[in-house]
Write a structure and sequence with these properties.
Elements (H helix, E strand, L loop, with lengths): L1 H19 L9 H11 L2 H12 L1 H12 L9 H14 L3 E4 L5 E5 L7 E7 L13 E3 L2 E3 L7 H16 L7 E7 L9 H6 L9 E6 L5 E6 L1 E10 L3 E2 L9 H19 L6 E10 L5 E2 L2 E10 L2 H25 L7 E10 L2 E2 L5 H12 L5 E5 L4 H5 L4 E5 L3 E3 L7 E3 L3 H16 L3
Parallel strand pairs: 3-6, 3-7, 7-17, 8-16
Antiparallel strand pairs: 1-2, 2-6, 4-5, 5-19, 8-15, 8-17, 9-13, 9-14, 10-12, 11-13, 18-19
């Protein structure tokens, strides 16, 4: 009896302290605060929380193991195979890799009338020749991809293990996913497949990506990406002088585009543009036969992206005409204008149950939730009006997408506890 009273007191104290830290968050509805309080009073949830903390060393070991398996865009296969086998070892009802490379593991619910996903992405931005060996400097881990998003994968495994260890059953089916194509020119191909007619039928989506506890990403930042390629006959810089020059056209196009884009983005909803890569040519004394550039555009407004696309197309065509007019000999240049990326945008109301639960779980852990906008795997379901949120991977990290990327396990287990709590709240405890 004394032990029971002490346990109840500890649960009450933990809940009270968690909700009392930090400034009040008025946008969280009382019913969701109460729901999270009720769920966390479950002995099974407290058992899962305890297990996640005690098992943290294994989570970090798996984090390191997965980081050291290269997973460049479009080459995630080795990491995917390992991630699938790790989920199977933990224990799931079934696991498979779909036709684009997503790892999907099913944990059946008691009624299966709803399907809820917990996701992290398999790919990193780094090519396969980059050394991804994890280096320890004190208590900090350094490696390309250590934070974005291999930590998320380790958290998905930790949540799966804790659910089993605490014998937590959910009403909804749960899919644990390691997705492909989140980074770079992957163009969210993994998530687009999952929400296509070939997908498993997803009702609610939770992604883990960069950031600390407190991130509640309910808004998708849309982007368009293009590759523009000028092509011509090419030749010797002296002997073939007078041919239309693809590099000259490219430079002119960039100049016209920046002029128009700068004026357009100086007002209205926030919009950005960037010429990120250029290339072509064979030598300093050769007129190139090809010249290309890749452009990234982002905006909170889809219509502004369409306008920026028109500005780019106009600049490209104008530069082509001008270069062909000044050519003194040979065939004219041609141009290819390709859209190589289209990430949809959108925004979900903070009143949706999933968003409310994400805020309430964040507040439970003593953090003030921040509703954010970003370009993540949640973009696709958000744009379709499907409940979706991206939460942070916890700990402390910096220098994502750089060779000096690092992550520090500063109470990292709390982000895993939060992910489990949100997943169970959205799935319903049986």
């Amino acid at each position: 009896m004394i032990r029971f009273i002490n346990c109840a007191f500890v649960l009450f104290l933990f809940s009270h302290l968690s909700y009392s830290q930090g400034p009040p968050v008025k946008s969280i509805m009382a019913q969701y605060r109460d729901e999270i309080k009720t769920i966390t009073q479950s002995r099974k949830i407290q058992s899962a929380f305890k297990f996640i903390k005690v098992d943290d060393d294994r989570t970090v070991s798996e984090h390191i193991l997965l980081t050291e398996i290269p997973a460049p865009p479009f080459k995630e296969m080795k990491r995917a195979a390992k991630f699938k086998s790790m989920l199977e070892e933990i224990g799931v009802d079934s696991a498979w890799i779909d036709r684009v490379g997503n790892v999907i593991a099913l944990r059946k619910g008691s009624n299966g009338r709803k399907t809820v996903v917990l996701d992290a992405h398999l790919d990193t931005v780094f090519p396969e020749e980059i050394d991804v060996t994890v280096k320890h400097r004190g208590d900090t881990l350094f490696a390309p991809g250590i934070s974005d998003d291999t930590r998320g994968l380790a958290m998905v495994l930790a949540v799966a293990r804790a659910l089993n260890e605490a014998d937590i059953k959910t009403k909804s089916d749960v899919l644990l996913i390691g997705s492909v194509g989140e980074e770079g020119l992957g163009d969210l191909r993994g998530v687009k497949e999952l929400f296509s007619e070939n997908g498993p039928g997803i009702d609610s989506w939770i992604s883990i990506d960069g950031g600390a506890i407190g991130r509640v990403n309910n808004k998708g930042l849309g982007s368009y990406r293009y590759r523009v390629t000028y092509e011509g006959p090419g030749g010797h810089s002296w002997g073939a002088f007078g041919l239309a020059n693809p590099h000259h056209a490219l430079g002119t196009a960039i100049d016209y585009f920046v002029e128009g884009a700068d004026q357009f983005t100086s007002y209205g909803p926030r919009t950005s543009y960037n010429v990120g890569r250029i290339g072509g040519g064979t030598s300093i004394n050769s007129i190139p036969f090809t010249s290309w550039m890749e452009i990234d555009m982002r905006s909170v407004s889809p219509t502004r992206l369409d306008t920026l696309e028109s500005i780019l197309k106009s600049a490209v065509d104008k530069a082509l005409d001008e270069q062909n007019k000044i050519a003194r000999r040979g065939y004219p240049l041609t141009v290819k204008f390709e859209k190589i990326g289209d990430r949809p945008s959108g925004e979900l109301s903070e009143e949706l149950p999933l968003i409310q639960r994400a805020m309430a779980t964040t507040a439970y852990f003593g953090k003030r939730p921040e509703l954010t906008r970003g370009s993540t795997n949640s973009n696709t379901p958000i744009s379709m009006g499907i409940p979706a949120v991206t939460i942070g991977r916890g700990g402390r990290g910096q220098n994502a997408h750089s060779l000096n990327e690092w992550w520090l396990n500063e109470d990292g287990y709390k982000a895993t506890q939060l992910a489990l709590l949100l997943l169970v709240a959205e799935s319903g405890m049986d």
